[in-house]
Amino acid sequence: MKELFPLKQVNGYIFSLLLTVIALSVYFFDMSLAMGLTILVVTAFIQAGVQLVVFMHAGESEDRAGIYIHTIFGVVVAILTILGSLLAMIWGYMY
Amino acid sequence: MDFSDRFSIPPHDDPMLYASIVAIVLTSIAIVVGVTYFKKWGYLWNNWLTTVDHKRIGIMYIISALLMLFRGGADAVMMRLQTAVPDNTFLDAQHYNEVFTTHGVVMIFFMAMAFIIGMMNFVVPLQIGARDVAFPRLNALSFWLYFTGAMLLNLSFVVGGSPDAGWTNYYPMAGPEFSQHVGVNYYNWALQISGIGTLMTGINFIATIIKMRAPGMKLMKMPIFIWAALITNLMIVLAFPVLTIALLMGTLDRQFLTNFFTTSDGGMDMMWANLFWVWGHPEVYILIIPAFGIYSTIIAAFSERNLYGYTSMVASILAISALSFLVWVHHFFTMGQGALTNSIFSITTMLIAVPTGIKIFNWLLTMWKGKIRFATPMLYSIAFIPLFTIGGSTGVMLGMASADYQYHNTLFLVAHFHNVIIPGVVFAMIAGLIFYWPKMFGFMLNERIGKWAFWNITIGFCLAFFPMYFTGLNGQARRMYTYSEATGFSTLSMISFIGTLLLAVGFVFLVYNIFYSYRHAPRNIGGDPWNARTLEWATHSPVPEYNFAISPTVHSEEAFWDYKENDYELFKGKVEDIHMPNNSGWSIIFAGFFFAFGFFFIFHVWVGVIIAFLGIIGCLIYRSFEKDDGHHIHKEEIEATEKELGGAK
Questions:
Q1: Can you give the pLDDT at residue B647?
Q2: Do residues B521 and B555 touch, judged by C-beta distance below 8 A?
Q3: Residue B621 lies in a domain
Q4: SS3 call for B162
Q5: Nearest-CA distance from B85 to chain A in Å?
Q6: Which of B260, B325, B330 to probe the A interface (max A CBs under 10 A)?
Q7: Are B341 and A94 in contact (CB < 8 Å)?
Q8: Which residues of B sit within 8 Å Cβ distance of A?
Q9: Is B608 contained in some domain?
Q10: Mean pLDDT on B61-81
Q11: How far are the Cα atoms of A83, B342, B346, B502 from residue B339, in angstroms, in the given order?
Q12: Which of B195-199, B243-247, B530-534, B568-572 is predicted least confidently?
C-alpha cells in the first residue's frame, strides 16, 4: 500500500497550497511595497520549482543532470538579462 | 484621423511600384498555369507541401532563403543606386526608409535565418546518423510559419506600405504617432509569426541532437557542426522569447494605444531598444555559429586533415554563446547612461574577440601542411578568414564605448556589420550550399561558373563595403536618403554602387550555375564526391527517404573518414523494417490560418481575426485527437532501393 500512495505528490500539493496562502497574505496584511514584492517573487520561484520537480517529474529520468543544467542556465540568463537591463535603463544614469 | 485613412493600396504613386505589382500578378498566374499545364499539383502537394521529411523541408527553407536573398538584394541595389550620385531623386525619403527597412528585415529574418535553419535541417539528422528530426510534424509547421511570416512582410510593399522605422524599429519612431501607416504592424506580425516557427525549430533540434545521435556518438564525438547547431538552438530558445514579448508590447502600443514604449505616461521608449538587443545580439551569434560550423567542416574536408583543436573549438563556441548574452548594450552606448555601464559592456564585448581569435587560428592551423584543394566551397572559406578578421577588428573598434560616439549610426557601422555578415554568414551558406548540393540533388555544380560567381561576389563585396568605412569615418550617417555634392562622398559612393552591381552579377552567376549544371552535370557521382569526412557522406546521393539503410555505429567525430581510411566498420547489423512519419497537410493549413490572423490583425479587421483564431484553435483540437502512427518501410523495399542506388551502405 505504501508503494502505491503518492506521498511525494500529496506533500508537494500541500506545500504549493501553503505557498499560495503566503502569497495571498500580501493582499490581506498591510505591508510595504518592497516587502510585498519580495514575498511574491520568492514564493513564485519556489512554487515554479515545486511544480517542475514534483508534478512535471524533472529529475526522475536518466537525463536529470541535463534537465537541471538547462533550467539553471535559462534562469541565470534571465537574471543576467534583468540585471543588465536595470543597469542600462536605470542604474546607469546614477553614476 | 480615421484608421482607414492611414494607408492606401498601393502605398506609393510610383510607376516602379505599378510595374512590380503587374510583375507579381503575372508571375503568380504563370506559376499556377505552369503547374496546372504540366499536371504537377499532385506531385507538389504529395512530395513537397505536405512533407515532413527533414531533407525536403531543408531544401524548401533554402529555396525560400534564396528568393528572399534576391528580394533583399533588389532593395540593396535600389539603395545604392539612390546614393550613387549626390542629390539623387530616384527614391524619395519615405520610399527610401521603406526600402532600407525591408532590406534589413528580409535579409536577417527571412534570408539568413532561413538559410541557417535550412542548412541545419538538411545536415543535422544526416550527420548524427538519425532518420529524421525528433518532431517531424513540428518541423514542417516551423517551416510553414516562417514562410507565412515572409509572405506577410512581402505583401506589405503592395498592400498598405512597408515598415519604415529601420529593421531595428526603434520607438517612438515606430510608434503610432510617427509611423502612421500599417507598415510597422506588418513588421510586428510577420516577425511574431515566423518567430514562433523559429522557437519551435530550436526546441526540435535540441531534442534531436540530445536524443537521436547514432550509437557511440558521445557529446565530445559529435562533428563540430552538430556542436554549433546544438548551441545555436539553445540560444534560439533563450533569446527568441524576448523578441516575442517585445513585439507583443509594440503591437499593444500601436494597435491598442498602451504606453510601454511611449515617451509619456510612464512609457520608456528606449526599453524597446534594450529588449530588441537583448534578443538581437544573441541573434547575430545564432547566425554566425552555424556558419563557423560549416567552415570548420569544409576547411577540414578540403585540407584533408582533421580539424585542428576540436576541444578548443567546442570551448570557444560555448564561450561565444555565453558572452553573446552579456554584450547587448554596446548597440546603444550613446543612449546617455553613464561610464560605468558602458565600461562593463565594452569589456564583455571585447572579450568575445578572444574565443573568436582561437577559432581563426584553429582554421589556419587546420590548413597548415594540409593538402588543400581549391574547390569553390574552400575558396569561400579561405576568403572568409581575412575578410571576417577585418570585420571583427572594426567590431572591436566599435566596441570601445568612448570611440563609439564617433562611429555610432554612421556608415562605418554599416560597413562593419556587412563585413561580418556577408563573409561570415552569406559566404558560409553559399559554400555550404555548393558543398551539400550533390547530397541534395545528386549532381555537382559546375566549378568554373562557380569560381566566376565567387570572384564577382568577393570583389563586389570589397568594392561595395570598404568605401563605407571611409565615408562613415568622415561622418556620413546611415539611413540618409541623399547627400550634397559638398560632402565629398560622391566618388566613394559611386565605387560602392559599382561593387553592388558586381555582387548582383555574382549572384546571377550562382543561379545560372544551377540551371547550367542541372542540364549538363553528370549524375553518377557516388555518395562521396568531395572525399569528405563526416557521416552524411556515408549514404547515397541524393539521400533516400530513410537516410541510412542500417543505423551507423560511431567511434570518433570523423566516423566516415575512419571507415574509408582506417577500415572501421560503420554499418554493423542488417537491414530491418524502418518506421517513418506520415506526410500531412495539417501544417500548411494551420499556417494558412495564421496568415489570415496576422493579415486581419494588421488592418484591425476584427471579424476576420476571430474567424482565423477559431481556425487556429480548431487545428489544435484536430491535432490533439488525430491518430497518426506513421508507417513502415519494409525490408524488401529498402533492399530493392539500395540495390538500385548501388549496394548497401
A1: 55
A2: no
A3: no
A4: coil
A5: 40
A6: B325
A7: no
A8: 210, 234, 237-238, 242, 268, 270-271, 274-275, 278, 325-326, 328-329, 332, 335-342, 344-345
A9: no
A10: 95
A11: 17, 5, 10, 43
A12: B568-572
Residue of A nearest to B281 (CA): A81
- DSSP assignment of B47-76, as one string? IIIT---HHHHHHHHHHHHHHHHHHHHHHH
pLDDT digits (tens, 9 = 90+) for B479-516: 999 999 999 999 999 999 999 999 999 999 999 999 99
Interface mutation vs chain B, best among A64, A89, A95, most B CBs within 10 Å: A89
Q: What is the tally of structural domains in chain B? A: 1
Q: Residue B274 and residue A93: Cβ atoms within 8 Å?
A: no
The residue assigned the cell 540568463 is: A77
Structural domain range at position B146: 3-584+628-645
Q: In this structure, what CATH number is given to the domain that contains residue B265?
A: 1.20.210.10
Chain A residues whose beta carbon lies within 8 Å of the beta carbon of residue B234: 70, 73
Q: What value does the mean pLDDT of chain B take?
A: 93
Q: Is the predicted pLDDT of residue B407 greater than 80, yes or no? A: yes
* Strand (E) or helix (H) holding B631: strand B631-633
Interface confidence: ipTM more than 0.95: no
User: How does pLDDT run across B552-608, given as a tens digit for each residue?
Assistant: 999 888 889 989 888 888 888 888 899 999 999 999 999 999 999 999 999 999 999
B370 burial class (0-12, 13-18, 19+ CB within 10 angstroms)? Answer: middle
- Closest alpha carbon to B243 in B64, B414, B113, B95: B113
Please give the average per-residue pLDDT across B234-256, as a whole number: 95
pLDDT at residue number A1? 65
For residues B409 and B476, is the Cβ–Cβ distance under 8 A?
A: no
Q: CA-CA distance, B505 to B500, in Å (whole number)?
A: 9
- β partners of residue B565: none
- Does residue B623 form part of some domain? no
